Amino acid sequence: MLNFTIRRLLTAIPTLLFIGLIIFLLLELAPGDPMAQVPLTVPPEVKEKMREALGLGEPTHIRFWKWLVQFFIIEPQIYLDNTFGTAFAEGKQRVISWQTRSPVMDIVAQRIPQTLWVVGMSYIVGVLIALPIGIISAYRQYSVFDQVGTFVSMVGYSVPPFFSGVLVIVIFSVNLGWFPSIYDTTHQVVDWDSFVLQLKQMIMPVMVLALQTTAQISRFMRASMLDNLNQDYVRTARAKGLKESVVVMVHVLRNSMIPVITVIALGVPGIFGGAIITEQVFKVNGVGQLLITAIYANDIPMVQTITFIFAVLIVLFNLIADVLYGILDPRIRYD
Amino acid sequence: MTDTTANTPETKRTAPRNQWWDVWDQFKTHKGALIGAAFFLFIVLAVILGPVFWTLEPTFIDIRARNQGPSLAHPFGTDQLGRDTFARMLKGGQTSVSVGLIAMALSLFLGTAIGVMAGYFKRLDGPLMRFTDLFLALPLLPLLLVIILLFRDPLRAAFGPETGIFILIVFVIGITSWMPTARIVRGDVLALKEREFVLAARSIGTPNRRMILRHILPNVMSPIMVSATLGIANAIITESALSFLGLGFPSDFPTWGRLLFDATDFLQQYPERVIWPGFAISLTVLSVNYIGDGLRDALDPRIRGR
Known about the structure:
The structure holds 2 protein chains of 2 kinds. Chain A has a domain at 111-328: MetI-like (MetI-like fold, Orthogonal Bundle). Chain A is 75% helix and 0% strand. Chain A has helices at residues 2-28, 44-53, 60-84, 104-139, 144-158, 161-175, 192-229, 232-239, 244-282, 287-296, 300-328. Chain B is mainly α. Chain B has helices at residues 2-13, 19-28, 31-53, 85-120, 122-136, 140-159, 161-175, 179-193, 196-203, 208-216, 221-244, 256-264, 272-299. In chain B, α2 packs across α13, α4 (85-120) packs across α12 and α11 packs antiparallel against α13 (272-299). Chain B is globular. Chain B starts with a helix and ends in a 7-residue tail after the last helix.
């Protein structure tokens, strides 16, 4: 198992390097000049120096190499410096955003908490709703509950978040006025009232994203439970005289969770992608919104870094899913 | 002489019971799929034939009739420039549905080609599947946004503002959604290759090209058809998402996603305006998903006849 994990980690490195290269080459084609806003009175040689300060004006392969060094070596060093007070990265060039002229990773680090709060919470809520729905619809297959569950998950698949989000804003903010339509990220929780306000502003984005998660996970849970409910060991367990709740909730559930857990792990990076749209609808200034503004502003280093972070998440969670599958199911042997 | 022998299987195939009738019989028993198919057909007919009957131009600006609610002259009301929302919905549907269909066709073609190649030719299997894995690891939505931003202007200059962006969007959706199809098709081809009829065909010297077209492809039709329906749904949602983020079609060239995006600016005053395009997108995608569900059951010979 350890062998397999190490092998997977090693193959992930060239994949990530290649993805980084693809993104880099694609952005290389971008029109637009970061110096376009600089006044014409600035002499050309000064402009040239500014260009070099932004890391431009060198051949493509050298700039890609420099970006790799900055992302993989200097940024972790900065992190170490900040946590332990060391000075590994002193005087070294970091990835600089063209929009704000400040380090990209600092801005990303500012935005990540907002995204994690909304997206992470919605994923947890979605999974927590999905699992009981999946279990009950499998146990009572073709019952009314199952039919309704199937229909709701079909709707969850089909209604895109930019419509469900807008729809809940129309219903709950415009017509009923229960919740604020814009997520206020400067809001701080200090007492009970501000906590209630935080809850109120989180409820709509979280539920919109959770609907999609629920739709997918509950279907998987149902299918996986159905596969296991007809197995011989279930009959054995019943024949031994175990209680029905023990049979379903302990024996069947534990075995059904194996594929579902890998699906949950695989879905994590996807939800970050989906959050781009939800953040736009509810005006949450998280990572997705940062990416959109960077794309509009032609901020190439920012786009490169955020897109690459998404790619790292996808590769990482694929790996986690594979390893988890091997750990949870002793029948799986990767050799 | 050879002509007559070649014709006999042809006449047999048109006999009353071919397998597609069985599929249809099974498909009919799935209520949701039947309703979905009827609704999708209705939408397609409406967006094709609608502009013939509803002759109001979607780009006609009648500034005195702006921001009107539903009335007899404007069944869905008018927007902030006095353009008829119903006409714009029909025009937008034309674009959205054709983006869905063409992008689906492109991604199916790519997915089937790569899947069949990987499954049939052992030498290509490794490289092609690594390539598919690589594509699956790409962060698609950010990349789509970047690609559209980069190539929007050159393509608009080359093909005109509307055709250029249409080609771009269809193309990027097509090349980023073929991976699931390729994987499924490869798996099926690998299994088919070991069957006796393939061995028999090979033993009489069938060349690879005819082997794939005559023996392999017809047998992988069912997974391809199911992923076709999922492909339409995916393409319509992706196009709307791009338009919603402001990186799809321009505002004077309506699509459902663009109409929804424009309507969100007037969310407080005219909330009903987001409802029409939103419901159009959701119901179309829902109907297509139901068709896919029904097809999956109908094409599965283990379920059929039960």
